[in-house]
Amino acid sequence: MDYSSWVDTSLDLNINPLRVKSEVPVDAERFGMARELKPAFMDFQTKPTAKEETGALVVEMNRVSEENRKLTEMLTVMCESYNALRSQLMDYMSKNGEKELLAPSKKRKSESSNNNDNNIAMNGHSESSSTDQESSKKPREEVIKDKISKAYVRTEAGDKSLIVKDGYQWRKYGQKVTRDNPCPRAYFKCSFAPSCPVKKKVQRSIDDQSVLVATYEGEHNHPYPSMEATSGSNRSLTRGPVPCIASLASSGPTVTLDLAKSKSSNDDSSSKPRADTPEVRKFLVEQMASSLTKDPNFTAALAAAISGRMLQQSHSEKW
DNA sequence: CGCCTTTGACCTGCGC
DNA sequence: GCGCAGGTCAAAGGCG
Questions:
Q1: Nucleotides of B under 7 A from a protein CB
Q2: C1' (C7) to CA (A248) span, angstroms
Q3: Closest nucleotide to A112, Cα to C1'
Q4: At residue A179, does pLDDT exceed 70?
Q5: Residue among A68, A63, A65, A59 at smallest CA distance from A312
């Protein structure tokens, strides 16, 4: 599957001068703005610095266009790399996955291996059948560890907290720095119900430290907290655990690809994100457009580019 | 004042 | 048996 084909990564900044030339006067006249706009443009052009400013704007527009082109290339490379890694992972899982699941691991911390993490993340499996692995642990944990799930949550780049908002109320009871990951691992217990046996481990991904890996152990023996009960500072507004969130973040707008799938679709074929459907493509494009338009830097650059083109065009018309 | 976080100490399982 | 590493406990302090 070619994931680079999911989304048209080009921003399609159509800054055709002919369009500006043909549309702007018409619109201005249509809305009766010609008298107000034209003097403004004329005044702007007659200023001694107008030429320089126009040139600067054109340079800025070219710079933005070049940056856009580079970002597009980077995104394409990332998609291709992800595609290749996924293919390798699928091959590896098809060969060794079943064998590893059946063989009880002697190592206690088999879950900390990044390959295992990625297996679950890529497939969107919110629950893993690790009962066999956990059965070797001490008896008092057997009741708790019959249900293990993982969630991957992207956080803000500067956010150093280990808080995963999943709607439940948690009490932190420990924190450890593990050997395979310099980022500390936080241990939480469900504090919504005193008898709730659910525990949660949260640790930043070693590969991408903006991603929090939350491991849930056990099942809640109480109903999901209501929105009123979860409206506090640490309460979440999301309902239920987030199975998988994969994001493509840049320095500018963040495009989040939610690859979560429903728990009911556990077969391997349906675990692949149906991004080739028109609905998903439309959704992704809308999300990208929304992210871009919300970014003030992008809108400012876009406005500068458009105004630069307008000025350039009107300037060339005059000459 | 109660709840939560922090953090060092302690417990437990596993490999050598 | 010993050391290492993950997991848990509980006292202390912070905060609303």
A1: 3-9, 12-15
A2: 34
A3: C6
A4: yes
A5: A59
